[in-house]
């Protein structure tokens, strides 16, 4: 996806290599520039380094989980405005509420439905 002539930069925070490989390749084919972090700490660090347009955050991560990583990203002035989409296999209403309370801007379930995820991303990107 292009915003003007600039590729939309996506930070994918995902510890499962098969999931990150599959999703990043699918998103790159759609025109996104994808950066991958393999755990929560790396995700927090990369959010400040690569300044993505949007972050896709797995919630079940080693080290610090996606909820804590999102709290840290939203607490830092330089990354607070970056939209974060929670990605989780847990689809209960309480999981959505927990993600939103941690600072996520939206929520999607795994396995990822690319069309649905792209709609969420477009909504958040057009609002920022």
Automatic annotation (TrEMBL):
Signal peptide: none annotated. GO terms for biological process: phosphorelay signal transduction system. PANTHER family: HYBRID SIGNAL TRANSDUCTION HISTIDINE KINASE J. The modification 4-aspartylphosphate is found at residue 58. Residues 9-125 form the Response regulatory domain. The keyword Transmembrane helix does not apply. Pfam families: Response_reg. Keywords: Phosphoprotein, Two-component regulatory system. Transmembrane segments: none annotated. PROSITE patterns: RESPONSE_REGULATORY. The keyword Phosphoprotein applies. InterPro entries: CheY-like_superfamily (IPR011006), Sig_transdc_resp-reg_receiver (IPR001789). This is Polar-differentiation response regulator DivK.
